[in-house]
Amino acid sequence: MATETRYLYRAPLVLPVISPPLVDGAVLTADERVLAVGPWAELRGEADESTKVVDYDGHALLPALVNAHCHLELAHLDFLARDYQPEPGEITAWIRRLLAERQECGAIAPEDAMLAFAQLFAGGCRTVIDIGNDPAGAAVGRHFRARLLFHLELLGLSGEREEAALARLAACPAELCCTGHAPYSAGARLLRALKERTLADGCLLPIHVAESAAEEEFLLSGGGPMADFLRERGVDLAAFSPPGCSAVAWLDRLGLLDERTLCVHAVRVSREDVALLADRKAGVCLCPGANRYLGVGKAPLELLLEHDILPALGTDSPAGNPHFSLWREMQTLREDHPAVAPATVLAMASRAGARLAGREKETGVIAPGVESSLLAVPCPAAGCDPEAALEYLTTAGGDVRLEWIE
Ligand SMILES: [Zn+2]
């Protein structure tokens, strides 16, 4: 009987994320799974004749990252975020430009979407929660060892548009995860129907929530720049009654908030909203790079953490974020929230997304049982001690050189 090859990786620093950093640590793997993680002094005795010992001298080992919010189908419009800068907070101006460019350029070619996915994989992401309006996006991840969790996004706020979205939802194949765009673009009936479907099929329900002042004003009063924009798009606002509350309170009234709903952005959230998110155990994903590009403000990360909410991190779409990298998201977050510990920021980019995606037993941490796909990153000049390495990893941005350990 063939003996399976076991690998024992040794490194001056191992960051399991789910447990404290290990100085002179080791990870034992076999059959594409982690068997054990611990100090080298403890695991070195595991090295028998079927074990290959690999020394990652000068490196830190860390888990695969998770991009918890992305729109790969907009990757061919990445020039928009580079060439066009909307006035701060003018999200409707950016959406207008985005829709015009999409009309002009047409749908993304499958190879371009794959290239964007490959770029995320090369940057250390093994799991991506992706949102798209075209069900063809579900096929993009098929040829990768990385995991693409695709969600078909439906829009329809009121009247005939909402009816059409409900009909589309009813016709969606059972294996396709479906979601709604945002509380200003998906009506109450549609959002409830989507939640009902995810309760039955176990899919996550990622929704853009509380991203901008324009959204806030629209939900409170039914007016403002978002109403102007929706009217321009032919949305029947006469058939829409504004809920007169925050986006978070509205989703709660609709019965949507629970641990399988992922509130993306969460910028314009009050203390009451955060308490509600915590109480309902709702998932939260922050997109600091996209928020900075659109000038919509910063999510209250410290307040979320105070409420025991560990948000995940997402790049959002390459058309609305000039940097398509989770390392850049960590860097932006550190700049925006210097008091937040680097270890927390790394956990947001790995463990938090894995947990929200229901994959914590598979990825995003280094622990027995998870996949053995790990990252090896050279330690900074300051050395491999946990403090220096975590500081470097969360501030290096796009400059991180990494190697996948498969
Ligand atoms: Zn988005």
UniProtKB/TrEMBL annotation:
Keywords: Hydrolase. Pfam families: Amidohydro_1. It comes from Desulfurivibrio alkaliphilus. Residues 61-377 form the Amidohydrolase-related domain. This is Amidohydrolase. Gene3D superfamilies: Metal-dependent hydrolases (3.20.20.140). It comes from the Bacteria. InterPro entries: Amidohydro-rel, Metal-dep_hydrolase_composite, Metal_Hydrolase, MTA/SAH_deaminase. One of its GO terms (molecular function) is hydrolase activity, acting on carbon-nitrogen (but not peptide) bonds.
